């Protein structure tokens, strides 16, 4: 397994609108995408794009708010009511190969491979197998570098 580009840091938040205000008004973010619902994953999502000097895509901050009472991030927010870092996401060129390699190393995959917020296949690796951090693995979106 070769480490790919970090695509985003996921932050669970109790209010996506309050988090957007924070990144815009306190952190000076100017490139904030429109929030959208991802009910199949139980979340509402908004991406904050960070700038770079190279013209390449910067790392994104993914704000995730529970979609409803069945959201998988509700447990996280119960323990962290103000929100906090939920996961880190790395890109791979081929999701099926990456999953096979993680499984061959004995890493626990959480659930099936599914389509994530970027419209590409993803899976999550258990934090106990990843130095304590829930890790999302995503196939590099077409057209990205």
Q: What can you see in these coordinates?
A:
- By secondary structure, the chain is α+β, with helices and mostly antiparallel strands.
- Strand 6 and strand 7 form a beta hairpin.
- An eight-stranded mixed β-sheet has the order 2-3-4-1-5-8-7-6.
- The protein is globular.
- The chain is built from three helices and eight strands; from the N terminus they run βαβββαβαβββ.
- The model has no long low-confidence stretch (mean pLDDT 93).
- The longest helix is centred in the N-terminal third of the chain and has 11 residues.
- It has one domain: Roll (2,3-Dihydroxybiphenyl 1,2-Dioxygenase, domain 1).
CATH topology: 2,3-Dihydroxybiphenyl 1,2-Dioxygenase, domain 1
The H-and-E topology, N to C, reads as: EHEEEHEHEEE
* Mean model confidence by pLDDT: 93
**CATH C-level class:** Alpha Beta
- Structural class comes to alpha+beta
Number of helices: 3
- Gyration radius from CA atoms, angstroms: 15 Å
Output the CATH homologous superfamily: 2,3-Dihydroxybiphenyl 1,2-Dioxygenase, domain 1
Named at the architecture level, the CATH assignment is: Roll
Sequence stretches where pLDDT stays below 50 over 5 or more residues:
none
Shape designation? globular
């Amino acid at each position: 397994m070769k480490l790919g580009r970090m695509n985003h840091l996921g932050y669970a938040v109790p209010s996506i609108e309050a988090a957007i205000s924070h990144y815009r008004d306190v952190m000076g973010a100017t490139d904030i995408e429109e929030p959208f619902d991802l009910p199949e994953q139980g979340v509402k999502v908004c991406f904050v794009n960070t700038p770079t000097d190279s013209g390449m895509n910067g790392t994104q901050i993914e704000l995730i708010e529970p979609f409803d009472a069945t959201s998988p991030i509700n447990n996280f927010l119960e323990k962290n009511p103000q929100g906090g870092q939920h996961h880190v996401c790395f890109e791979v060129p081929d999701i099926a190969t990456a999953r096979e390699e993680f499984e061959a190393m004995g890493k626990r995959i959480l659930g099936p491979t599914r389509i994530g917020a970027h419209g590409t296949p993803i899976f999550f690796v258990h934090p106990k197998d990843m130095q304590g951090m829930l890790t999302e693995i995503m196939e590099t979106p077409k057209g990205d570098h």
